[in-house]
Predict the structure.
Amino acid sequence: MSVRKYLARRLLMLPLILLGVILIVFTILQCFSPAQRAIAYIQSTEDMLYINDIIKKYHLDDPPYIQFLYWFDNLLHGNLGFSVSARMPVSQAILTFFPATVELVMLAIPLLLIIGTLFGILSAVYRDSLIDHFVRVFSIGAWSMPTFWSGIILLAIFYGGLGMFPPGRLSTQIALSLIQNPIHQYTGIYIIDGVLNGRFDVAWDSLNHVFLPSLNLAILSSALPMRIMRSSMLEVLGKDYIAAAKAKGLSKWVVIWKHAVKNAIIPLITVSGIMVANLLTGVVITETVFAYPGLGYFAAGAARSLDMPGVLGFAIFAAVIYTIVNLVVDLLYAVIDPRIRY
Amino acid sequence: MGSLKPIISELKFTFKRIRQSPLSIAGLIIIMFYVALAIAAPILAPPQPDRDPYIIPNYGISPIPQPPSSQFIFGTTEGQYDLYYGCIWGVRTALRTGIMVTIGVLIIGIVIGCIAGYYGGKIDEIFMRITDIFYAVPTLVLAMAIIVLFGVGIDNVIKAMIITGWPTYARLMRGEVLRVKNEDYVLAARAVGCSDYRIITKHILPNAIYPVIIMATMNIGNIVLAASALSFLGLGSPRGYADLGWLISLSRNWILGLPGNPFAFWHTYTIPGLFIFTFVLGWNLLGDAFRDMLDPLIRRR
């Protein structure tokens, strides 16, 4: 089947699965009484007086099927309720905290891909050497290490011991200077915005703060690509076409880069969905440890304050992102490997 | 049952491979050490009488952690909780959590997987769509949502992890059942007139279940990791409960140490962290080695 048909089929599955997630969330919410659910929409304690009006307004005591229509309609309009932990509507909280997480992940993904694939390749090419043993030990160690523990150790060594890479997103001086002379926010990502506005001190400060959390995320998440790359390269290097290429007289590194790596990378694409899921959970813990005000920090704060709309809003958002990423990965897979078109 | 000789010779080969692999021996030793530690907890760190043994005793109210001394082998953490007691009973909590989640996940996963795989058709479709929906949300996020909805506490952590964990095992079981379903002995059993229940329990299950059990034991490390992460975020045990994740969350305030001595409180984060790390490492080492050893395609390379 062509790429187009495959794409169409997968695009059709996306809203169905999301609908399933939303249905489950809605069903769980039904376990609570109308008054309890109405609390999701109040913004201050005075509003509690009007709780019956809120119940009427959001149709919280109507039969479930009617309720679902109104709730879903609200969802589509971005009304996910009010988050008490962030003191703003949930959708606004997500939009506010999202750019910080993008900045973090933007730095972490290239780091983890480069570390993972490079060491995986080297480990396979120089099998049973020192580097191979180091890679195998490291990947199992990183896989077993709690994200929060490595974050705390990194903070203790670099921030506590050496005074570099402080936690948080910006230092107080830069934050104050931004309040006095605000920069135009093109993306919300301070590294990019700082450069675009000519404020290199803002960009540098942001980089300084985001580096350690990214390193934490990257090092722990690189274990999976490292192992996959290693086993995949080992399998590919044993294949006939590699022997043929060597027999043709191609130099060792040309064979590795032009033939082996290209084929070995395919299983990596398969697990990139899992890697994104790991990143989403790693982000929650890392941002909490480093007090980095991103989406994970918001989610952890919401969970700790038992802020139901906040956590559910984050869960739905994470599901949307994860499903989209899986779709993109599947498409990429179908495009790159012509054998996979079913 | 058939002849015993091939079973014994395969077992002997498995043990030989275990002996040859230093990593798996290391993993085995680590795990045996921790299991022994957990079982011997009441002897190693005697609980105070008339108290829930999982509550860590605290000796005073000062928030400043005390370094290791002759009285407190590992020192104390914020609020003067005895770290030695906390770590030993924390390992017991971790093991208990891992085992209970694994049992719950196995029971649900095996039952659903068998039904879906054996009967196929609409039932299979429904269950697979349900697992797809669970797969759409990352596990920790879903667990967080479940705990916020139903309340904080280690029992809800266990329930939340069972709810988020069963889809993987159901899928695996279903795959194995599909593979075994078309074997000749199943057809023969059906021809003789065995009931569905008898076919599933006596013929399909014993042949399909090994990968599922292996995967479950391999995963105990990850379960403990996720449970301690939830405790770290404050969603697990209450204050004072012996939980390694909670102990590390206490240490966050003491990363900077004292002026002039940045590592003054190293024991608050290093010691509980080492316990979790080596615990999970042991399981992962063993799990890796087991997979290399028991997978019939890799066994005799």
